TrEMBL record:
The keyword DNA repair does not apply. SUPFAM superfamilies: FAD/NAD(P)-binding domain. Belongs to the FMO family. Transmembrane segments: none annotated. Its cofactor is FAD. Signal peptide: none annotated. Keywords: FAD, Flavoprotein, Monooxygenase, NADP, Oxidoreductase. GO terms for molecular function: flavin adenine dinucleotide binding; N,N-dimethylaniline monooxygenase activity; NADP binding. This is Flavin-containing monooxygenase.
Length: 418
């Protein structure tokens, strides 16, 4: 029997980026008691800019990865929370980092969420205790650790901070600089340098366009053909097979002298605070045991918001949060553990049959609409407007040129126009 009036739960949310903020909004709406722990001093997650790279002021790995001059690679029309539009004064579709951050923080102020966030709090341990959860939280300023109990845990710590750097023969003897895109901030350090960017996706092409005016040359290497449009002056190379002291060897037997290698090779899911008893393992960038990319099948009161990639994060986190809360409130009856595992295995096996590598299990891409509408249907909430799905698919499949002057409008629920 589904209970329509759930008991008030004590919920903890780890992280105050877009996933944490939208989860908090819906959890408070439902009358739950919530704590939000944020390791930094500001709400907004990935969208907060800082000159800081590598380590933060407390000696922990920095979660800041935003660089100066970033323009969104998707139009704002697909980057909105439910029923919260960008101000009408913002007419353009492609936004700067400060404009997106302002939107996220405006959402928090609109619903009085910012006062609920506890800043400079690092969660160091999450462990199940009976049907509840024990959290150990370190106050980074006072160095005092506190142990707390909760009914449910929402992991909203993002996945754009722990870099993935591929192993390449000769990395240890290469005498030039090697850095990951998480450490890129401004183009000045590339002045007169011969730069090789490894990775052929959006961040690589965007950073290439930023450093082109400073660098002596910019080349991009990728193991498969690069399908996104590159700035004039950026040349492409096939996969890197080996490095020596100052040269890079490629799979077509060519080589290039290079001063800087910039790895735009993505990030890894990273949950150092989860104990083994939580039942979560990350293998080849697959967070195992998650039903619908959200619910821990071993312990369904441990939930993850914002895991999928190649998706629109705002509507994805919004609908995921409402689905997850509906499972806690018994408005959505979860299948048995065995049934969830079976469905998960069928999904993974289907991807493997289609030669999708394991590291892409959380990649949504063209299935964006189907995935979110499935969650919305189960949670009995309003589905995503078809116009948003159509516009997103246009960007994923047609890859239109992103130009500052290009403007999109959601005409109605069904249609968009340029």
């Amino acid at each position: 029997i589904l209970h329509q009036v759930p008991r008030t739960m004590k919920i903890v949310i780890i992280g105050a980026g877009i996933a944490g903020v939208v989860t908090l909004k819906y959890a408070l709406n439902a009358g739950h008691e919530c704590d939000v722990f944020e390791q930094t001093g500001e709400l907004g997650g990935t969208w907060v800019y800082s000159d800081q790279t590598d380590m933060d002021e407390f000696g922990f790995p920095s979660h800041r990865t935003m660089y100066k001059g970033l323009i969104t690679n998707l139009p704002k029309e697909v980057m909105e929370f439910h029923n919260f539009r960008y101000p009408s004064a913002v007419e353009k579709s492609f936004l700067t980092q400060p404009e997106v951050l302002h939107y996220v923080q405006s959402y928090a102020y609109q619903y009085n969420l910012h006062n609920k966030v506890k800043y400079y709090k690092r969660v160091t341990k999450v462990a199940p205790v009976g049907t509840q959860w024990s959290l150990t939280v370190l106050d980074l300023k006072t160095k005092v650790e506190t142990s707390l109990r909760y009914d449910a845990v929402f992991v909203c710590n993002g996945h754009f901070f722990h870099p993935h750097i591929p192993n390449i023969e000769g990395q240890d003897i290469f005498k030039g600089s090697q850095l990951h895109s998480r450490d890129y901030r401004t183009p000045e350090k590339f002045k007169n340098k011969r730069v090789l960017i490894i990775g052929g996706s959006y961040s690589g092409s965007d950073i290439a366009s930023h450093i082109l005016s400073s660098a002596r040359s910019v080349k991009m290497s990728h193991h498969s053909p690069i399908t996104i449009r590159l700035a004039d002056g950026v040349t492409t190379k096939p996969a890197v097979v080996k490095l020596n002291e100052n040269q890079v060897m490629f799979s077509d037997d060519s080589d290039e002298e290079v001063d800087v290698i910039l790895y735009c090779t993505g990030y890894k899911y990273f949950y150092p605070f989860l104990t083994e008893e939580c039942g979560i393992k990350v293998e080849d960038n697959w967070v195992r045991n998650l039903y619908k990319h959200i619910v821990n099948v071993e312990r369904p009161t441990l939930l993850f918001i914002g895991i999928p990639f190649l998706t629109c994060a705002f509507p994805t986190c919004d609908i995921q949060a409402r689905f997850a809360l509906a499972t806690l409130e018994k408005k959505v009856a979860l299948p048995s553990k065995e049934e969830m595992v079976k469905e998960l295995n069928e999904h993974v096996n289907n991807l493997r049959r289609n030669n999708i590598p394991q590291r892409h299990i959380h990649k949504i891409g063209s299935y964006f609409g189907e995935y979110l509408n499935d969650l919305a249907k189960l949670a009995k909430i309003e589905p995503l407007p078809p116009a948003v799905i159509k516009l997103y698919k246009h960007f994923i499949e047609d890859k239109p040129i992103r130009e500052a002057t290009r403007k999109y409008v959601l005409v109605d629920n069904e249609n968009y126009k340029e």
